Automatic annotation (TrEMBL):
Family statement: Belongs to the beta-class carbonic anhydrase family.
Protein name per Swiss-Prot or TrEMBL: Carbonic anhydrase
A Gene Ontology biological process term: carbon utilization
SMART domains the UniProt entry points to: Pro_CA (SM00947)
Role according to the record: Catalyzes the reversible hydration of carbon dioxide to form bicarbonate.
Biased composition (Polar residues): 13-24
Known EC number: 4.2.1.1
Enzyme class: lyase
Length: 239
């Protein structure tokens, strides 16, 4: 039987498999993500770990090398912007990357049960949740339904921005990303302990919707983002 993309079969994505499942160091995990983002931005993605063989290989278990706590925005698909595949990323998404018990439990599961060495808070410019919170703060009119919970979770970031004299939307977004990093560590003693022991790191990054580029905003420990940046893209292992 021919595999997709093989001679005699139907055209399909190029098969590319790497060793990301063996990553246990936070800095290396961050380097893997940034390398994938550079491939995405340059228009030369490898689409690793998306072939039928890898799909079968991860069916019995998962070993993601990063947890992505991201905004639910439809333009923020983590596996695409970081050029990753099946089993690579453990993704948790809420509007405005707000946190709650279910989010914290999901992160703790990945870090403690799956052994994931990196947690990334993924925000983006022109965030709708931040804009909604700004409107509520300006008008005093609360949104209907459960959207109020999202706004309430973002309002502390707006107050922090106001105290710092930050008024532009993207500056507030950066503060909200950093606030989410702090919230994860403050609200989860399990995650904080893993970071203290050096088994995990937490990095907040901001994604530019038009350019496709991610940049670090906050990191604990502070040097993990700079240590994780490599000079070139990661090298896939032999398939």
């Amino acid at each position: 039987m021919s595999l997709p993309g093989a001679s005699g079969g139907q055209p399909g994505p190029q098969r590319s498999t790497d060793q990301s499942s063996t990553i246990t160091e936070p800095a290396r995990a961050y380097a893997e993500l940034t390398a994938g983002n550079r491939r995405f931005v340059s228009g030369s993605p490898r689409h690793p770990n998306q072939d039928a063989g890898h799909r079968a290989a991860v069916a019995d278990g998962q070993h993601p090398f990063a947890v992505i706590v991201g905004c639910s925005d439809s333009r923020l698909a983590a596996e695409i912007i970081f050029d990753r595949g099946l089993g690579d990323l453990f993704v948790v998404r809420t509007a405005g990357h707000t946190t709650g018990p279910e989010v914290l439990g999901s992160v703790e599961y990945a870090v403690t049960v799956l052994g994931t060495p990196l947690v990334v808070v993924l925000g983006h410019d022109s965030c709708g949740a931040v804009q909604a919170a700004r409107e509520v703060a300006a008008t005093g009119v609360a949104p209907e339904g459960h959207l109020g919970a999202v706004v309430d979770a973002v309002l502390p970031s707006l107050r922090r921005a106001a105290a710092d004299g930050v008024e532009d939307i993207d500056g507030i977004v950066d503060i909200h990303i950093a606030q989410t990093v702090e919230a994860l560590l403050e609200q989860s003693s399990v995650l904080a302990d893993a970071v203290t022991r050096g088994r995990c790191a937490v990095v907040g990054v901001s994604y530019r919707l038009a350019a496709g580029v991610v940049r670090p905003v906050a990191a604990v420990p502070a040097d993990v983002a700079s240590l994780g940046v490599s000079d070139g893209p990661s090298t896939p292992a032999a398939a």
